[in-house]
Amino acid sequence: MTAELLHDPETEGPPRTPVDGVNVLGSLSPSRASDFMSCPLLYRFRVIDQIPEAPDPYAARGTLVHAVLERLFDLPAGRRTLEEAAALLRPQWDELVAAEPQIAELFPDPEQLTGWLDECRSLLETYFSLEDPRCLEPAERELYVEHVLDSKLLVRGYVDRLDVNGEGLIRVVDYKTGQSPSEFFEAKALFQMKFYALTLWRSRGRIPKLLQLVYLGNGEILRYEPDEADLLATERKVNALWLAIARATETGDWRPRKSALCDWCDHKSRCPEWGGTLPPLPTPEEIAARAARDKPSAGRRADPSGASPAPGGNPPAGGSVSGGGSESPGGSASSSGSASPGGAPPLGGWALPGESSPGGTPAPGGTPSPGGTPAPGGAPSPGGSSPGGGVPAVGAPDVGEASPAGG
Ligand code: SF4
């Protein structure tokens, strides 16, 4: 089976030529793996059943703000101001509606739309309090990355932004429109970034120097410096997660995991945990027909992990997933935000040419940007349980996306 023949839960994106012709077990990316680890049944509804979900203003907000931040870098550096970014909101919204007309149903009243766009603008304001895009020239934006691991699992995902500095060091940047996670859930958020780092390392041969999560909901930045041992551990966990998903696919045992996430789940009415009745699983023939019907499109992905705020302000995909300190024996994490400018450089003053270092020390020719005080070193390592009742423990991963081979 080739990657092209796989059932593909995320049909958008460029052609996947790098793996054409390679036999793979299946594909996995951070967002769907996060679903599985939070609730295997949620994964089933989204990936196996592919049941459409109602438009969500939080997800739409993430999509729109991401689109604006991507387009912003189309402008000459000197024009990358808040006003220019805000001016992109309406046209980008119109583009979203043109691509997905049902999204317009979120705001039947023009005043509602105006208020929602104001919320988006306020997220952009927070972005500009954290970074000065006039000092940045991203190497890549909305970069699709993929690689077939030795296990024959295809790992893939979209990187919001890739920066490469004068020394060739790579920084992976991801925007979140929600709030930064509590310390307990930092590992989960970082797993997504390590997943990207693993994919980039394996496909490009170089470990990214810095992983950076930019939380626009509360103006915090979470930074992490991965190392080889860290990414090898991530690879093991990704493979173990895939085995757990494959086993659930084989047995049909997609157990629900009740949690605070349920309040944000679009499938509550059909979930046995809430008195619902499970729909029958699609037959292999139905899955094959669907895979043949689906065509890649140029739509922008959503921002599920930073979209709907869970109670406490954290992303909804929290779940009780283990983060595992063993995953990051050598890496170091730090967080900073606009509330704590001028802290010590958390990661050796890594910066792009013209950009200030994270700690506030300007790089040559750069403009200081807000920095922060790093958290005590070491990756957070909340404990957790296996991805779902009856599903084998994965060994402590955090986040991901997956589709079983042929399923
Ligand atoms: S309602 Fe809760 S337990 Fe049920 S599928 Fe959704 S997240 Fe899982």
How many E-type strands?
A: 8
Task: Let me know the average pLDDT.
Answer: 75
Bound molecules: iron/sulfur cluster
Structural class: alpha+beta
Helix count, DSSP H or I runs of 4 or more residues: 8
Largest sheet: 8 strands, mixed
Distance between the termini: 12 Å
Low-confidence stretches: 1-18, 295-330, 337-349, 356-407
* Rg result: 20 Å
What is the helix content? 25-40%
Count of discrete domains: 1
Fraction of residues in β-strands: 5-15%
**What is the approximate shape?**
globular
Short description:
By secondary structure, the chain is an alpha+beta fold. It has helices spanning 30-38, 40-48, 57-72, 82-99, 110-130, 186-204, 228-251, 284-293, and strands spanning 26-28, 140-148, 153-164, 170-176, 210-215, 220-225, 332-337, 402-403. Strands 1, 2, 3, 4, 5, 6, 7 and 8 form an 8-stranded mixed β-sheet that branches.
Describe this structure in words.
With about 400 residues, this protein is α+β, with helices and mostly antiparallel strands. It has one domain. It contains 8 helices and 8 strands. Strands 1, 2, 3, 4, 5, 6, 7 and 8 form an 8-stranded mixed β-sheet that branches. Helix 3 crosses helix 5. The longest helix is centred in the middle third of the chain and has 24 residues. Bound molecules: iron/sulfur cluster. The site of iron/sulfur cluster has 14 residues, from helix 2. Iron/sulfur cluster binds next to helix 2.
